[in-house]
């Protein structure tokens, strides 16, 4: 019995020792023995990297510039010219009066052939859509679902009307752009396609198909365009484009597309309804007709940036080559073992 008791105690003590052991199982990960890349930036490597970047970036820069150069763009700054002479000194009175004629005829000459589709944009300057109070004045839940049409707590000051909640509420929707454009060439009316001008993610996820405008622009102060109360918000693409707020005070938004070619020297007659009030804050309005390339619209900045980075890298590579040839410096021992002298090579365990 004594022998059995002693054996039991020994077994219990050994099992408790095993339980208390904190020694991990051996692996290269726990012992930090995984192979690692330790590059040594020798002059050859540095020069090769800079040359490679230059060789890649410079052709991309030239391709971007050539693509941008092929884009044909017409910009018409019409807000001042569309004000009658007698209102030149009081543009605000012109735009706020309901009795003035807002129709304006503009003639645009096509400089080069513009192959379809020709994109129509309106451009606003000095309009701060990124202002904190302006950006917050909307209700995303109301835009998505009819059941949330009364959730207007974030829409000040355009929350409610005498007849109930405003749908869509908030300053962004209230200030919807309302200038309109009609185009004709050689006495032939050009159709403007306003379908699929929005982001699919916005149209499908942010605006509900069961949400209809309600009590919108029904107050005393009208901010912008009105909406058709019989069409759901998910199909009102002008509103969806406008509700994606711009980050900068100068921005363009897509108005529609002309889906016929415009030939060189064609005169496009544009009938503009000059309704949108940019005069009260010193803003500008522009109409833009533009084709597109594989990088989008006309944009020289991207090509210049690629050329600048590529040229700078080639310049540094040539400078390092000359420096290395004129004043060479001997390299130290770059072998892997030179970093591990005196290492025992054994495994380190933590108990």
Layout of helices and strands:
Blueprint: H1 2-20, H2 43-70, E1 73-77, H3 91-96, E2 103-109, E3 118-125, H4 132-136, H5 140-144, E4 160-161, E5 164-165, H6 171-174, E6 180-185, E7 188-190, H7 200-206, H8 237-243, E8 251-258, E9 267-273, E10 284-290, H9 300-326
Antiparallel strand pairs: 1-10, 2-9, 3-8, 3-10, 4-5, 6-7, 6-9
Textual characterization of the structure:
With 351 residues, the chain is an alpha+beta fold. Helices cover 31% and strands 16% of the residues. The chain is built from nine helices and ten strands. The chain has helices spanning 2-20, 43-70, 91-96, 132-136, 140-144, 171-174, 200-206, 237-243, 300-326, and strands at residues 73-77, 103-109, 118-125, 160-161, 164-165, 180-185, 188-190, 251-258, 267-273, 284-290. The strands form three sheets. Strands 1-10-3-8 form a four-stranded antiparallel sheet. The chain has a four-stranded antiparallel sheet with strand order 2-9-6-7, with no helix packed on it. Helix 2 packs antiparallel against helix 9. The longest helix is centred in the first third of the chain and has 28 residues, at 43-70. The protein is extended and about 85 Å long. 21% of the residues are buried. The model is unreliable at 337-351 (pLDDT under 50).
Give a nutshell description of this structure:
This protein has nine helices and ten strands. By secondary structure, the protein is α+β, with helices and mostly antiparallel strands.
């Amino acid at each position: 019995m004594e022998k059995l008791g002693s054996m039991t105690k020994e077994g219990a003590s050994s099992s408790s020792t095993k339980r208390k052991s904190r020694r991990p199982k051996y692996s290269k990960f726990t012992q930090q023995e995984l192979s690692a890349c330790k590059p040594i930036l020798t002059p050859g490597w540095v020069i090769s990297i800079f040359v490679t970047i230059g060789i890649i970036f410079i052709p991309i820069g030239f391709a971007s510039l050539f693509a941008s150069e092929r884009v044909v763009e017409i910009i018409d700054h019409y807000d001042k010219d569309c004000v009658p002479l007698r209102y030149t000194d009081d543009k605000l009175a012109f735009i706020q009066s309901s009795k003035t004629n807002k129709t304006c005829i503009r003639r645009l000459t096509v400089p080069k052939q513009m192959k379809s589709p020709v994109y129509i944009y309106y451009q606003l300057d000095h309009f701060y859509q990124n202002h904190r109070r302006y950006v917050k004045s909307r209700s995303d839940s109301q835009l998505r679902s009819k059941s949330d049409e009364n959730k207007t707590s974030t829409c000040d000051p355009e929350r409610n009307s005498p007849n109930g909640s405003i749908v869509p509420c908030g300053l962004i929707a209230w200030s919807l752009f309302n200038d309109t454009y009609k185009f004709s060439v050689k006495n032939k009316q050009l159709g403007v396609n306003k379908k699929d001008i929005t982001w699919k993610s916005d149209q499908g996820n942010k605006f509900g198909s069961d949400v209809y405008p309600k009590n919108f622009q029904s107050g005393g102060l009208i901010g912008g365009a009105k909406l058709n109360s019989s069409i759901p918000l998910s199909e009102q693409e002008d509103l969806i484009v406008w509700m994606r707020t711009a980050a900068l005070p100068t921005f363009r938004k897509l108005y529609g597309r002309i889906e016929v070619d415009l030939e060189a020297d064609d005169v496009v007659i544009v009938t503009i309804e000059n309704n949108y009030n940019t005069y009260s804050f010193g803003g500008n309005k522009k109409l833009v007709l533009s084709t597109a390339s594989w990088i989008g619209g006309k944009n020289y900045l991207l090509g210049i940036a690629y050329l600048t980075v590529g040229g700078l890298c080639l310049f540094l590579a040539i400078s390092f080559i000359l420096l290395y040839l004129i004043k060479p410096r001997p390299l130290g021992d770059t072998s892997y073992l030179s970093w591990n002298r005196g290492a025992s090579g054994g495994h380190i365990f933590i108990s």
